[in-house]
Amino acid sequence: MSELRTPHAGDDMAEDDDVVALLMRQHGDIRNLFDEVEAATGEERRDAFRRLVRLLAVHETAEEEVVHPFARKGFPGGEQVVKDRLAEEKAAKETLAALDELDTDDPTFMPQLLKLRRDVQEHARAEERYEFTHIRRSADVTGLAAMAKAIKAAEAMAPTRPHPGVESGAKNMALGPVAALMDRTKDTVRKAMGKG
Amino acid sequence: MTFNPLEQRGIPLDRQLRSWRELNVDPIDPDHCDPYTRCRIITMNGIEVEAILFSHQLARHTPDPEIKRQLARVRYIEAQQQKVVNWLLPGVSSVLETTIAYEQVAVDLTAWVARMEPDPYLKQAYQFGVLEDFDHLYRYANLYEMIEHRKAESIVDNLTEVMPGRPTRFHHRDPVDNVRDPYAKDETNPLSKLHALTIMSAEQQTMNFYMNTGPTYMEPIARQLYQEIGLIEEEHVTHYESLVDPGETWWEQLVNHEYNECYLYYSFMEQESDPKVKAIWELHLNMELEHLHAACDLMRRHDGRDPASVLAPELPDVLTFEPNKGYLRELLDTQMDLTTLGAGYVREAHERFERMQEQIHGGEAPPSDRVMTEHDEMFGREYRVQTEGEHPDPAQREK
């Protein structure tokens, strides 16, 4: 891989006035992090995996709080589409929770990670094809922008990049377990959506 | 050991039909596959699509119902082969991801053919064309990072470099300048016929793919870039199909098609790294051998000629997917500023070329330039993969 780094969604210079474009980039960021975890070993892998877990938690929670509620009411059949996505998310979260218990050097870590990767990728494409297309069609420009803003707020509260200087370990631990992170993301998103 | 398809028998035609269970193949893993496995799949899909379309055209020009029925039988099997081959591509890949793989095929397949082509005029046609596919790869790679935040190297895996080729805006030539001179069927090396058919089929499938998937994008720049490059694929199909001698009879063309399929399945079977995919190449080779024999019988019956008289005495060296970085850098260094005039090549922008350029661009930057501007606005840089150092042409180095 080259030295070029693709910044995370929200950190590039895109206008971020379209929630679908933002989430599609975030799907790529997640896929990139899977690549990083697979390519790394030892401490580096541990660190990349912590970042992956955080990004996944924040991303999925933000989707559940922002785009799924819109999709549910926004277009005919939305209810069922969201139900299918939630079932995929639930399965992925279970694998994620199981993985989170393991050390990244554990021999069973990699096969489980690859399974999670497949599930997450299928889920992401299903969202893009069966949910996002309808959102773009049925939301107006203001709606797309408001949802994008809420997603970015979630991002900001749970930074998913390593902090220069503070090497990841300690700082990352400070973010706490996945469940707590998801709760805090929920609160932040609700505030940004004006539902406090 | 040399492999002579004319002397081998395969699976009898009446035992080639596959059930749904057999057609339901496992797709490759887009994040862990050998990039050249994906290239071989895309190539063979293009070859099968051409086989099907050619057979349909032949049937439409055949009054004899018995021959129509025979063509229909073989064509149905070829349609099953196309389904198996193309369904090896995974549903989780995006159109853009597959597009980048199509361009990797165009670059490494055309470069390899250019290297091996014995006829200098044909060689020049491939050298000219490959620098355009090379530039398309670069433009799509930048679009890919914008839309999906993914780097094209996660697809091409550093086997193929990603950097500017002949700039896409210059690919729009007056259509008459896309028509080449054909080889002479009775004098040319039989390998040249296979090369022309292979590249024509690959470019034709790329044209089909872009013309149908381009409008599935919602992002304006993506829609526009597919339109622009899609029109260049029209030029490329014109360019390559005109290399084939139109004096070949229908039956002779049919034999060439079937022989080429044997050649390519054999080549890919020899080098395939994925055992499940390798088994498919082997199975399809064994089917194609019978298709070839059936085509040979038709040629003997209707042309009264021996097919061996138009084919190679033995199968040529296997067609290989491998990096062509050094060769491409040589071409980038020497052939960037070429365009076509009539059936030849020139370095100056002639009147007809200038007129076409003025009309199609209408004084504005084409999508292929705007994608770079928009990418720069988003990332403050370009996306390139230059594993072998700086661009050979100083004018094309990143500022």
TrEMBL record, chain A:
Source organism of the structure: Streptomyces pilosus
Top-level taxonomy: Bacteria, Bacillati, Actinomycetota, Actinomycetes, Kitasatosporales
Gene3D superfamilies according to UniProt: nmb1532 protein domain like (1.20.120.520)
Domain of life, source organism: Bacteria
InterPro entries xref list: Hemerythrin-like
Coiled-coil segments: none
Protein name, UniProt field: Hemerythrin
Pfam family, one: Hemerythrin
Domain Hemerythrin-like as annotated: residue spans: 19-132
TrEMBL record, chain B:
Classification via InterPro entries: Ferritin-like_SF (IPR009078)
Protein name: Ferritin-like domain-containing protein
Species for this entry: Streptomyces pilosus
